Automatic annotation (TrEMBL), chain A:
This is Cation:proton antiporter. InterPro entries: PhaG_MnhG_YufB (IPR005133). Keywords: Membrane, Transmembrane, Transmembrane helix. It comes from the Bacteria.
TrEMBL record, chain B:
The lineage of its organism: Bacteria, Pseudomonadati, Pseudomonadota, Alphaproteobacteria, Acetobacterales. It is found in: Cell membrane. This is Na+/H+ antiporter subunit E. It comes from Teichococcus aerophilus. InterPro entries: Cation_antiport_E. Pfam families: MNHE.
């Protein structure tokens, strides 16, 4: 990618902004993994990276390669589709595994909030 | 026609994917893609997937637009929760009774809910139709339920009726 300097300014600015925004969102998701307290809360953090985080990076890639090669480069769309379609699989697997473990240990976290608050 | 293309939508999608990966409209790769798409349709038949009829392209478009906007909003909301934690934030589980029964429609709903940061699909009971969700910022349970039912489930039922 040593010819990246050939990119005209009007394309370089949106590409740089989108890359910054996308990686910023992915970073926020990773910080969330560190900061959030419970396992179920931490399930939510990486989805920032797999939704608009990846979307911004892919859009930057589309603009960059379309301008550099002077033709429409669109196969990034496939990455986006596959990420959206496959994340539920891992997420549900992790969520259900955690729920199963909690239930085995006799502390089902899914009781309605009111009941749990009343019990406390 | 049905015998040749048992799964027309899937064949078209596969062909489009092949062309995107090859990044060309040359006849050679197109022919290979065509053969692959048709053959994959026959393979799918022996797997016996649940068939759904997909209708109402207008509703699909509107739903897609809603989802794109909602995901953007919840990206910001979750980023705020992470970067500027509030003391009064309440996380918790949410139960929703779904009327949606079509397997493919449920898969689409799962993709929407998991792609949206802030809601995670945890468990679904195929017999009773109860869906268990985990919500990161549970302000008002009833408004979450009505969002899911009216904004996502209703259009999905119209599409996959």
């Amino acid at each position: 990618m040593n010819h990246a300097a050939d990119l005209p300014l009007w394309a370089a600015i949106p590409v740089a902004l989108l890359l910054l925004l996308g990686s910023g969102l992915a970073l926020t998701g990773s910080i969330g993994l560190l900061r959030l307290k419970s396992f179920y809360e931490r399930l939510h953090a990486p989805t920032i990276g797999t939704s608009y985080g990846i979307f911004c990076v892919l859009l930057a890639s589309v603009i960059f390669f379309t301008v550099m090669q002077s033709r429409l480069v669109m196969h990034e769309v496939l990455i986006g589709i596959f990420v959206v379609v496959t994340t539920p699989v891992t997420l549900m697997l992790l969520g259900r595994a955690a729920l199963h473990r909690d239930r085995l240990e006799g502390k089902d976290p899914t009781h309605p909030v009111e009941q749990r608050e009343a019990a406390e | 026609m049905r015998r040749l293309f048992p799964h027309p939508l899937m064949s078209i999608a596969l062909f489009a994917m092949w062309m995107l990966l090859n990044e060309t409209v040359a006849p050679g790769p197109a022919l290979v893609g065509l053969v692959l798409a048709v053959a994959a349709g026959w393979v799918m038949t022996s797997l016996r997937p649940t068939r759904s009829r997909i209708r109402r392209p207008g509703v699909i478009l509107r739903l897609a637009l809603h989802v794109i906007v909602d995901i953007a909003r919840s990206n910001l909301a979750v980023a705020q929760v992470i970067l500027r934690p509030r003391k009064d934030r309440r996380q918790g589980f949410l139960r929703v009774q779904l009327a949606l029964r079509d397997e493919n429609a449920l898969a689409a709903l799962a993709c929407i809910l998991t792609a949206t940061p802030g809601t995670a699909w945890v468990e679904y009971d195929t017999e009773t139709g109860w869906l268990l969700l985990h919500v990161l910022d549970l302000i008002d349970e009833d408004s979450w339920i009505s969002i899911i039912k009216q904004r996502y489930e209703q259009p999905l039922m119209e599409i996959f009726q």
